[in-house]
């Protein structure tokens, strides 16, 4: 046997082993590996365009419309170039994911945009894969990271078909694109130098890629292109992650779950009854108690109450798996005990929100305090959904409802404009008490500029020092909050800070 034959056999054996490993990666029927599917030409072209859009317009550190443009390009690749057509639920989820990315167009707070981008990734992934169980949704959110090996073969087969087909060859497309870019840059630069008015128009239309890190740009474009291809592959070969969900637990005797739940209900009821004055005492409780400040009152048990809320979700999740839903008596008992637990927990959630509200009113608003308040309100929404599920004794819709409530809640949080709200409340506090912490306010984003602009001098200048919005970006870096802040600061430039303020 020749050396060439041996090498070919070893190569074939290696590919066979790789295929076996890919087949055994998931249990049978979850996500079968398909060695025959081919990436469509439209998908390859659209993914390449998405990568180019990201490389030319998107800067991760600059909050702008480029986030939305990149998201739209990826969505088009996944849902417009691959069959089947998206369902109504998928279309709604895609619109929700794009709405979360659209926050980068109207808000300038980087921390808020980071939350929206992560949430958009999760919602968009669920739109691709679907899922009705907690396990299915969890795997769906990371599905894009599980596709590289499959997508590589899918794209390779697509490129091979392009090379052997009669259509346009990818090499020719790349050559034409490169020549076109060179011609536009060469002649465009000559026209720009010849006419200032044309230079202004040309600069506004053509992305001004100020490349300080060309390698980073290329890497970003490649990653976005890979994400678009992975999204299209998931639409074409969708895994069934719901099948990985654990089966419902074996029902147990009623007294085995009813006794612990009844004792827990009594404990919660006793806590609420004894602590009614403490939970909702407010100003009177603080003033009537020696050595108790607003800070102590707000923080006294706040994190413990938050932990109680989270642990109650775990208790309910475990209990419902052990209830025999076929027996009417067990269903009535579960509704009574679990419903009471949810209602009492809602009272505790209200207590935690009340404590934080008093703390904010007394010491001012910060990002952490406002975010914690929003998280507590969302947990309250989750318990309301649990009550509805308990009444219906059906929770198949619950995981999706919780995810949808989180996405809608985050959009509502962005609509509130947290940085602007924080600045506005602190400005109002300064008007009422004369106390203000400009050191903290300086760290807010451009979303806070309209509220801080209403402060009297020199407090206004002290709070606005360090905000730089002088540059006129291109259209692909547009951000409404930054544009408005630029107009305000150009109309009323920041002066000299002549004093220190804190409080």
UniProtKB/TrEMBL annotation:
Q: Where does the signal peptide begin and end?
A: none
Parts of the chain that traverse the membrane: 64-82, 94-123, 129-152, 173-194, 214-234, 255-280, 300-321, 333-353, 373-391, 398-416
Its domain of life reads Bacteria
What's in the keyword line of the UniProt record?
Membrane, Transmembrane, Transmembrane helix
- Does the keyword section mention Membrane? yes
From the Swiss-Prot or TrEMBL record, give the protein name.
Answer: DUF4153 domain-containing protein
């Amino acid at each position: 046997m020749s050396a060439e034959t041996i090498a070919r056999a070893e190569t074939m054996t290696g590919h066979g082993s790789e295929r076996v490993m890919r087949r055994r990666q998931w249990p049978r029927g979850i996500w079968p590996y398909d060695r025959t599917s081919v990436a469509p030409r439209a998908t390859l072209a659209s993914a390449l365009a998405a990568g180019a859009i990201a490389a030319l317009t998107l800067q991760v550190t600059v909050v702008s419309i480029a986030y939305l443009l990149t998201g739209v390009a990826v969505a088009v690749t996944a849902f417009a170039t691959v069959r089947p057509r998206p369902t109504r639920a998928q279309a709604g989820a895609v619109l929700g994911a794009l709405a979360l990315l659209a926050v980068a167009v109207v808000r300038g707070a980087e921390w808020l945009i980071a939350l929206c981008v992560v949430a958009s990734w999760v919602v968009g992934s669920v739109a691709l894969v679907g899922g009705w169980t907690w396990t299915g949704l969890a795997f769906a959110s990371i599905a894009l990271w599980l596709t590289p090996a499959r997508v590589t073969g899918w794209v390779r087969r697509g490129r091979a078909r392009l090379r052997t087909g009669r259509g346009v060859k990818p090499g020719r497309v790349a050559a034409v694109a490169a020549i076109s870019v060179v011609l536009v840059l060469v002649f465009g630069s000559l026209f720009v130098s010849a006419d200032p008015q044309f230079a202004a128009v040309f600069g506004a239309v053509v992305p001004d890629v100020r490349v300080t890190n060309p390698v980073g740009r290329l890497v970003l474009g490649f990653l976005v292109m890979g994400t678009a291809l992975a999204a299209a592959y998931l639409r074409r070969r969708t895994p069934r992650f719901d099948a990985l969900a654990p089966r419902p637990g074996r029902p147990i005797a009623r007294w085995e779950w009813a006794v612990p739940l009844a004792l827990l209900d009594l404990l919660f009821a006793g806590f609420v009854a004894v602590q009614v004055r403490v939970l909702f005492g407010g100003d009177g409780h603080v003033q009537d108690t020696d050595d108790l400040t607003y800070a102590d009152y707000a923080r006294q048990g706040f994190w413990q109450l938050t932990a109680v809320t989270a642990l109650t979700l775990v208790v309910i999740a475990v209990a419902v798996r052990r209830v025999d839903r076929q027996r009417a008596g067990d269903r009535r008992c579960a509704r009574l005990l679990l419903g009471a637990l949810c209602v009492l927990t809602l009272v505790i959630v209200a207590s935690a929100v009340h404590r934080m509200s008093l703390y904010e009113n007394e010491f001012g608003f910060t990002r952490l305090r406002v975010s914690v308040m929003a998280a507590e309100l969302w947990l309250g929404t989750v318990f309301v959904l649990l009550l509805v599920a308990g009444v219906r004794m059906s929770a198949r819709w619950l995981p999706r409802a919780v995810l949808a409530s989180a996405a809608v809640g985050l959009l509502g949080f962005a609509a509130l404009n947290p940085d602007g709200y924080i600045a506005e409340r602190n400005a109002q506090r300064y008007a009422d008490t004369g106390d203000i912490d400009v050191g903290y306010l300086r760290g807010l984003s451009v979303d806070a500029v309209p509220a801080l602009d209403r402060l009297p001098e020199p407090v206004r200048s002290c709070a606005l020092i360090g905000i730089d919005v002088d540059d006129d970006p291109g259209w692909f870096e547009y951000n409404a909050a930054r544009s408005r802040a630029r107009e305000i600061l150009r109309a009323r430039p920041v002066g000299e800070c002549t004093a220190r303020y804190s409080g």
